[in-house]
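Please go through the sequence and C-alpha cells given here and tell me how the chain folds. Record follows.
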Amino acid sequence: MVVVSGNDTTRPVAPGPLEREVDNDDFKDDPDEPLIPEERHDRSWWDHTRGFFVAPFTGLVNDTFAVITNPKKVVTDSWNGLKDYTTDWWKEKGGGVSEKWKKGDKLGAAWEGTKKGLSFTKDLAIDMFVDKENWKKGNYGAAGGNTILGLVGILSPKTFKKFTKLGKIKKPKFPDTPAGRAAEAAENARKAAEKGDLDAAAKHADEAQKAADEAAEKARKSQKKACKNIAMPRARVPFATFSHVGTGTGTAAPAVYHGSRSPVLALRVGSPTCGPDDDDVKASREAQQKALDARADVVRKIIQDHKNKQITERSERFQLDEKGLDRLLKLAKDDPDLSRGEIGKKELADSLEDLGTALRTKNIDSQSRGALGGPVVRATNRHALAEAMAEVRAAQRIAEHEAAPGTKVYAGIGDRKGARASVDLGDGTTADMSGVPEADAVYKGLDGKVHTVEVKNTGNAARKASVHEQIKRLGDWQKAGDGRQARYEIATDKGWEKIFDGFEKDKSGTAPSGTPAGRMAEQGVGARIGGQDVSPAQLQKMNDAWSRLSESERRQAVSGGRMSDPRAAMGFLGVQ
C-alpha cells in the first residue's frame, strides 16, 4: 500500500518486502551510528530474528577487537564515559542531598544520599545493559539480543566497551527550534546557578527568554495566517446563520453553519479567534515555561546565597522567603484572565529578571533589597505584583542613574515600630525619616539633596484616601530641613490623568477633599509620571485647567490622546 505525496513520490505506509538486500550493518550495535538513508524500522519477523543473533555477535566481535588492539584508549574512554555519566546524573537528580547538607540536616542528607545511590545504581544498570536505542528505532530483535548478552556477559569486552558511550547517553540533546533553544538555555542557566556563576546564569536566562519570544512570534504569525483563511463572505449565503463551537483564548474552533444543506457550505471557514496552529501554541508555552524556570533559578540562587553565612558577609545578607517564590510561580498562567488579576508567565519572567538585578545591586542597602523583594514573592495577583515591581524598578533605576557615587539607596525605612527611622546614606549624610512611617525609596541625589520617593504603579492608585495624608507627611518632611526633596512617582502614564479626579472614600465612607494633583501642589511635592518630572506649580495649573472642562470634554481629551502623558497634557491644557 502506498500513498502519493505532494512531490509526486511514493512512500510505503505499511510493512512490505525490502527493496534491497539486508546486510549486517542494518543491525547497528552502536546507536550513535547514523541511520542509512530511507532505511525503515518496521521490519519483518525474519529481520528481527536475524537481528537477535547478528547484532550482539557482531558487537561482541568488534568490541573485543577494540579492547585487544587499543586497550589504553578503551580504558581512558571508559573512565571518562563513566565519570561524565556519574557527574551528569547527580547534577540532574541528586540536588536534594546537597540542599539538606547545606541546611545542616546531616542525617537527612545521609538518608537522601542512600536513596539517590540506589536510584543511581538502577539507572546505571539500565543504561549499561538495556539496548533502549535500537528498541526506539524499531530494531526489536537487535535490542533483545544485545540486552540478553549484556546481562549474561557482564564481564565481557562488550560491557566494558559500553562505558565509553555512557557520557553520550545522559547528555541532553535539544532540537534546533525556539522551544529547544529555550530548554537548552534554561538547562545551562540552572547549571550555572548551581555553580554560583550568577552572571552566566542570568545570561543563559536571557537567551531562554529570547527563544521564548521567538516561539511566541511564530505562534502570532500562524494566527495572522489563519485569520486570512476565510472561505466565503456571509452575505452571499442567504437564509443562513453561523455560530462558533468552542471558547477560550487561543482555541481554534470551526464555524458551524445552520440552514441550507448545500455541500459547498461544509468548508471550514475559520474560527472566532483565528487561533494559531496547536503545535505552535504548545511550543510557545513550553518555551515560556523554560524561560520562567530559568529566571526563577537565578532569583532562587540569589536568595540562597545572600542568607548563607558561609559565603556572604553580614553587611550583604538579607532574608527573603524562598517558599514564597515557589508559591508565586504556581500562580503563573499560560493564558491569564486579566479581568481576574491572573499573572501571565511572560509577565512574571520579566518581573523576576528585574528583581534578580535589583537583589544583586550593591549600592542598594542589603536589608532594603529584602524589603523590596518581600512584596513581590507575596503577590497573589497581577495588580499586587505590578505595585511591588514598580518599587523594585524605581529603586534599581535610582541606584544606577540618580544616586550620588559612594552612597546607598534605602527602601522600606521610616518612623514606625521595627523600622529604621534614621540611616547613614554611605558618605556621612544622615537621612532622618521622622514623621514618615514608610518611604519607598530614600537616597542622596547627584544634586546633593536627600530625596524621599513614594511610588505607585498607576494614577488610580494615588487616589486612595490614605494618600491624602501621606502627601502631607511628605510635604512636612521636606519642609523640616534644608536639602530635602520629596516626590510622588507613578510608574506608568497609562491612566495617569486620574490624579486630577477626586480621592476615593475611606472606610467611614468619607472622601478627602480635593484631588491628588491638587494636594501635591498644595504641599509642594512634585511628581514623576512615566519618567517625566512635573513640578508642583505645573501640577496646580493642570489641575485647575482640567477642573474647568466638562465631563464630555474630558472624555474626548483622553480618547483623543491629548492626555497620553504629562507633556501632551500640558500642551493641550496650555500649561508651561
